[in-house]
Structure formats: structure tokens, C-alpha cells
Design a protein that fits this description.
Length: 303
């Protein structure tokens, strides 16, 4: 497995987080609030993604927003009224936490304008990213705090100067929900594959493998020309997957295969799993919550 780059030494400093989607899988909760603001325990989902980026040494984050997403900007901004209130009440821990949130990274926003697909959303970041390598993080995919996937992928860029995509094995009957890769082993690295082809949401019968694209990508800036050239794909949308398929005809693109610690919070069951697993690991809640779970399982005769 490619070693992670020591913190603070990476040249990958920018992340793009597409957050313009409508969140229809979580209606009615997302009727009047962005899906990225749905809480997992006491933090909105997008905060987990931003914290993961910061842990990986990213200090410049561009969030691609759309209509109805203003609360995202408020969340990462200062709130002087609240800070004053907390200070008056002597709630120093809360005050620090709220302030830190606004100082975690430089967070910028740009609107997608038209909902033309994930690839189009990433293309909107071109001006901001410029001629730099960058990370794309999808907000539906939450990684637990111990995850080293992003560090590992940035390490691949540092060593090989190439793009990479996070991949995870799935049962073949679920592959049509994801981008899917045709891999080739890389001799000196068993966690890494070279991607020979990438297909968005294939039917299981024609899927090139059971390796599904997860929502973490590291790109060289060459992806932007590919995004400009790519034709609309599945659902009539500009697909990021199709642009990567163009990129890999020009330069190597790697797949970073991992297994543990990812939740798709766009799915209700995985959202619940994320809430439970992350709560169990929390210093402030874990012990009591574990005791509750054990008692609950016994009381209901589960398992
Ligand atoms: C998107 C990508 C897909 C990827 C998935 C990961 O699909 O298009 O390639 O596998 O995210 O979560 P979406 O979930 O937006 O339909």
C-alpha cells in the first residue's frame, strides 16, 4: 500500500466538494434544508467531510452550491451573536468549537447555476483550482475519523504525479448504483490498481468488475479539459466518470482500493449505521451509548 504523505508536506492543498444536489432520497427532510446539513449526531454531514479534508492537509476548500444552500455558508461562517451569547453564559467549550469551525480552512463557494450533473459541478471549479492538483469529495460519502483513504490517495499523487479514484468491492448486483472500474494490478503496490476503463452505473451483466467508485478523487488539472470535451452520459448528465474515462486515455489513472470505514449517508440504512457507529466511538457519548445498545438488543431479542 502506498505510504501516506507526512502531514503538512503534500502539494495537494485544494478540495472541491460538490453540494448542489437536491437530496430527493431524503425527502421530506430535505424539502427546506440542504441534505448536506442533515445532522449525524450533533454535526451536519458536510462538517465531517470538511474535517476529513483538513486532516489530510487541505487548507482551501471550494463548495459547489446551488439554490437553497445558504445555510452551508452560515455554518462555516462566524456568528457573532451566538459567540457573544456563549461568552456571556461562560460556555467556553461551545464558544471554542463554534469559532474553530469558522477557522478550519479557507472555504469558498461558487454556484453551479444549472444542475447539469456531477461532472459539470466539478468543471465549475476550474477557475478556482487553476493549474493545481486537487481533491474531489462527495458529501454523501462519509469516512470515519480513522480512515486513511484520502491520505493514501494524496500519497499516490505525490509519488506518481497522477490522478486516483477510491474503489471498494461491492456485490455485483449493487454495481449499477456506482461508477465501475476495469482494473489492472500495479506490480509494486498491492492496494493500488491501474484503471483501464471506467463506466458509470453499468448493468451487472456488462460491469467490468465489482469495484465501485467511492466519492473520493485526486485529480491532476488535466481533468478539466476532459470535462470540457465529455458528452452527456447516464441520465443526460455530464458525468465525472466519463471524463475520467477520457483522462485515462491520456495519462495513467489509479484506483485506490479500500474496504472499511465508509458510509453512504444518502441511503437511509447507511445513514443510521453511520449515526450508530460514529456515536459508539465518541469519547463523550460512546460508553453510555454502548450500554444502551446492549440493553436494547437484549430487550428486543435482536441477534
Ligand atoms: C456518484 C458518481 C458515481 C459514484 C458515486 C459514489 O453517483 O457518479 O460514479 O460511484 O457517486 O457515491 P451518485 O451517487 O451521485 O448517483
Amino acid at each position: 500500500m502506498t505510504p501516506a504523505t507526512p502531514p503538512g508536506t503534500s502539494t495537494v492543498k485544494k478540495a472541491v466538494i460538490p453540494a448542489a444536489g437536491l437530496g430527493t432520497r431524503f425527502l421530506p427532510a430535505t424539502k427546506a434544508q440542504p441534505k448536506e446539513m442533515l445532522p449525524i449526531i450533533d454535526r451536519p454531514a458536510i462538517q465531517y467531510v470538511v474535517e476529513e479534508a483538513v486532516r489530510a492537509g487541505i487548507d482551501d476548500i471550494l463548495i459547489i452550491t446551488g439554490r437553497g444552500k445558504r445555510s452551508l455558508e452560515d455554518h462555516f461562517d462566524r456568528n457573532f451573536e451566538l459567540e457573544y451569547f456563549l461568552a456571556q453564559k461562560g460556555k467556553d467549550d461551545d464558544l471554542t468549537e463554534i469559532r474553530d469551525l469558522a477557522e478550519m480552512a479557507d472555504i469558498h463557494y461558487v454556484r453551479q447555476g444549472e444542475p447539469l450533473g456531477l461532472g459539470h459541478a466539478v468543471g465549475v471549479a476550474r477557475k478556482h483550482v487553476g493549474d493545481n492538483p486537487f481533491v474531489v469529495m462527495l458529501g454523501d460519502d462519509i469516512m470515519d475519523e480513522q480512515s486513511t483513504v484520502l491520505d493514501g490517495m494524496i500519497g499516490v499523487y505525490e509519488q506518481r504525479g497522477r490522478s486516483s479514484v477510491a474503489l471498494k468491492e461491492f456485490p455485483i448486483e449493487e454495481i449499477s448504483s456506482y461508477g465501475c472500474a476495469r482494473p489492472e494490478p500495479v506490480d509494486d503496490d498491492d492496494g493500488l490498481v491501474r484503471i483501464l476503463d471506467l463506466v458509470e452505473k453499468p448493468r451487472p451483466e456488462v460491469a467490468p468488475s465489482n469495484l465501485a467508485v467511492m466519492g473520493r478523487y485526486v485529480f491532476t488539472p488535466a481533468i478539466f479539459d476532459c470535462l470540457d470535451r465529455v458528452a452527456p452520459g447516464v441520465g443526460g448528465e455530464i458525468q465525472l466518470t466519463d471524463a475520467i474515462a477520457l483522462l485515462l486515455a491520456e495519462e495513467d489513472v489509479y484506483g485506490y482500493v479500500f474496504d472499511e470505514g465508509r458510509y453512504d449517508i444518502g441511503q437511509k440504512l447507511d445513514y443510521l449505521r453511520a449515526t450508530v457507529e460514529l456515536a459508539v466511538d465518541r469519547d463523550d457519548l460512546g460508553a453510555e451509548f454502548r450500554a444502551f445498545l446492549a440493553e436494547f438488543v437484549q430487550r428486543r431479542g435482536i441477534g
